[in-house]
Amino acid sequence: MTYRQPLRIPGITELPTSGAGMRIGLFGGSFNPIHQGHRLVVEETLRRLYLDALWVLVTPGNPLKNHDDLAPLADRVTAARDLLNHPKVRVTGFEAAHGFTYSWQTIAYLTQAMPDRNFVWIMGADNLVHFSRWERWRDIAAMVPMAVYVRPGSGRRAPVSMAASALAQWRIDEDDATRLATLEAPAWVYLHGRQSPLSSSAIRARRQHVKPK
Ligand SMILES: Nc1ncnc2c1ncn2[C@@H]1O[C@H](COP(=O)(O)OP(=O)(O)OP(=O)(O)O)[C@@H](O)[C@H]1O
Ligand SMILES: O=C(O)c1ccc[n+]([C@@H]2O[C@H](COP(=O)([O-])O)[C@@H](O)[C@H]2O)c1
């Protein structure tokens, strides 16, 4: 598959910089395309997790998804930069440059390369529902604290999912979310708050529908 090939695109695949001790959210996604639901998660987690920075990691391709209608990485990065225009947000496609396929590779790399940063993995509740299908998901939970943001359709299923049950003893109260980034993993929080019903697949389906024949 082409997405496995290491790929360097100037201005797209660089790793952001940050200072020691910073609390950095890692928000991985396909962003195919980016939408206001993503922006909501970014805004809420920046505030609730008390983050100094949030890195949006535009994946070369989710290993559990079909990539037939995946837009080029550079286009997804550019669109994400346009929509998530915030001084603390950096958007990068750096995983492609390293040939990373799985999130555990990204997280292992970052936590080893920058051991003095406080990284937090961020994902929507739908991803917690399927988290137990991710490659080395228990290792991910052992490497970084994780924040899960509520999402319509998954709000009830996520907290009783296989991964949530397996990691239950390390869940912290959302009132303590500001501490999450500085806690030793495993630690995770389930954040409730404003919700958006938007999804990239619905946007793609609408675009298909209005395409001229
Ligand atoms: N409306 C939303 N509310 C909360 N989290 C969301 C929302 N949309 C996406 N996310 C989260 O943002 C991250 C990136 O999501 P992704 O780019 O796959 O968008 P998506 O809308 O879920 O796409 P698709 O419909 O193609 O699966 C994931 O962790 C996902 O759970
Ligand atoms: O590592 C895995 O096995 C794995 C399985 C599914 C999804 N992910 C990652 O989860 C993030 C969210 O993916 P997505 O497609 O829901 O936006 C993105 O960074 C993916 O690469 C990772």
TrEMBL record:
The keyword Transferase is annotated on this UniProt entry: yes
GO molecular function ontology, one term from the record: nicotinate-nucleotide adenylyltransferase activity
Pfam families listed in its UniProt record: CTP_transf_like
EC number: 2.7.7.18
InterPro entries: Cyt_trans-like, NadD/NMNAT, Rossmann-like_a/b/a_fold
Keyword NAD: yes
Pathway field: Cofactor biosynthesis; NAD(+) biosynthesis; deamido-NAD(+) from nicotinate D-ribonucleotide: step 1/1
SUPFAM superfamilies named in the record: Nucleotidylyl transferase
GO BP terms in the entry: NAD+ biosynthetic process
Keywords from the UniProt entry: ATP-binding, NAD, Nucleotide-binding, Nucleotidyltransferase, Pyridine nucleotide biosynthesis, Transferase
Domain Cytidyltransferase-like: from-to ranges: 26-206
Catalytic activity reported: nicotinate beta-D-ribonucleotide + ATP + H(+) = deamido-NAD(+) + diphosphate
Protein task: Catalyzes the reversible adenylation of nicotinate mononucleotide (NaMN) to nicotinic acid adenine dinucleotide (NaAD).
Family the entry assigns: Belongs to the NadD family.
Name this protein carries in UniProt: Probable nicotinate-nucleotide adenylyltransferase
Species: Devosia litorisediminis
